[in-house]
Structures are given as structure tokens and as C-alpha cells.
Amino acid sequence: MGRSAGGRAIMAACYGEKEPIEHAANLSSALAAGKPEAFFGESRRQKLVLFIHAAVHGAEMEGTAAALNLVNLLETGKDLKGGEWPELLSAAERLRLIIVPCLNPDGRARVPDDPTIWSEDEVEKYRHGLYKDGSQIRWPQCKVPHPRDPKADGFLGAYFNDAGVNPLHGVFLSPAIAPETHAAMALAVEEKPDCVLDLHSCSVGPFYIVGNDAIPERLSRRQFYIDGFYRQLLRERLGIHRDWTTDGREGALTLDGAYYHLCHALPLVFESADGTDKQRPSTHEQIVDSQLIAIEALATMGVREGFKLPEN
Fold first, then answer.
1. CA max distance for the chain
2. Which of 7, 66, 94, 181 has a 20 to 30 Å separation from 165 between CA atoms?
3. pLDDT tens, position by position, 268-307
4. pLDDT digit string, tens, across residues 212-225
5. C-alpha closest to that of 196 among 297, 120, 275, 267
């Protein structure tokens, strides 16, 4: 689907027949004219479209593991450890799925495998980077300046591509330095997904992030609903109880919020556990399974009700 700032291939796997839509206008112009069919087409698609991408931040490869397990499930009927997911597979077969296992291969190439064995210092180094003097940049300080000058840091964190761009915040940057962001947006315009799932990770996962300033309130409420269904499945399947939610309202347009304005997709952000929480350690199996459960919850909800409820 494109190449990174460092020239690395960005790969997408697609499942389910594509239903082409001929459109006479982009979304903004079509809606302004009162003719949404100029963008969405005259006839309704038979299958809803779910777009999943992982590793927008290259050190967060837990989503990559989940994506590759999902691909193996769709190809063979089993995940990479031989597990069967009949409900997930049943829902997935009724959707068109676009899966990007690693959106930021530049950042991914900068870090070693298996964050579950990293020290706290290694977590900060590989995720957010080091200043010239070797001190930690940390989050959210790593977001300024942006783009970062790769030569100005002692170690460029895997948040960033080789041009120093965090693809999550590359919407208004040039395609020359933020090709990953623009490749994802171009694919969204081409496929017109009904929902986009962005897979991340952190120490206190797993959980969905809900709420987004860039989308209507009714869609934010839908995010809460999907999150609740996921938490029910998570408790039933893995015995993990989440009695809190995380609000994602940042007051700025990220790649996730942009999907709504490009194609009216419901954007969702999921944070997996990364195995670094010493109080609640997670195994590799739990990390992958918690994400596959999240995808199952989302896909099941999409098939049953649609990702977005009707506006009226």
C-alpha cells in the first residue's frame, strides 16, 4: 500500500470481495451538496468494511502479533498457536477486512523483539527515545518538537519514522515526510471502511480508548457501547475485569479522527497490555488473546447492528 519514509514496504492484507463504489465527489463536497450518494455510491454494499492497522508506533508490536494471528486465522482457521475462534471467524467472514500489521516499519526496525522482557529504561528508550546526553525523552514530551530531527536525538524512539514523524500526528504534514499517514488515509478513501481499528499498547492495557473531539457525540457514545461489550467478553474469556474507561479527547485531529472526515468511518483506538506491568504481568498468549477478543467484539457488533447506528 506504500513505502515508509525510510523506504520500507507497508503491507496490507485484504479479505472479502471488494465492492467497488463509483463516486462523483469527495465526502466533504458530497455532504455539502446534500448528496451523500455522490461519495458512497447509489447502491448499498453487501458487506461492511473493517480496516485494522497496528504499530503506528513501531515499539508497540503487540498489535502486529495480533494482526498476524488474525491473518493466520483467516487463512487456516486457527491462530498461530493453533487456537480456534469460531465466533470471530464467523463474523469476519461476513465483513471485508483490511489488515495492516505494521504501519510504521521504520520505527519497528529500530527496536528488538519482545517488550515483555524490557527494563523500564529500555521501554522509555525504544518507545520515546533518548536525548543526546542519554536522558529519557518520555511521553508526552516526545511529541514536541514535531517532526523531530533524527540527528538531534541520541536515539530516535520508535514512535517516529525515519524522518522524525509520529504517523499518528502526520495528517497535516507533507507526504514526503509522513508517507505512512498519507498511505493509510489514501487506503481509507479507496476502501471507504465503516470502521477503523487502530491497535496500540501500554503497560496498563487492555482497554479501548473512547471519546474523540473530532467525531460527533453519537459516535463517541457508540465507542462506549462497543467498549462495554468488549469488557464483558474479556471478563468471560480471560477473567480480566476493567471497571474504568479511558477518554481519548485530545482536542486535536489525529489520524484516527481524520478517518471520520475522510469516509465517515467510526474510529476506534485499542490499547493492549505490553507485558511491562510488574503488578499485573501478561503472558504472550494473554496479550494476543485480549486483542483477538477485542476484534471479535467489534466484528460481532458490526455484523449484528452495524458499526454505526443510523443517524435518525
1. 59
2. 66
3. 999 999 988 888 889 999 999 999 999 999 999 999 999 9
4. 889 999 999 999 99
5. 267
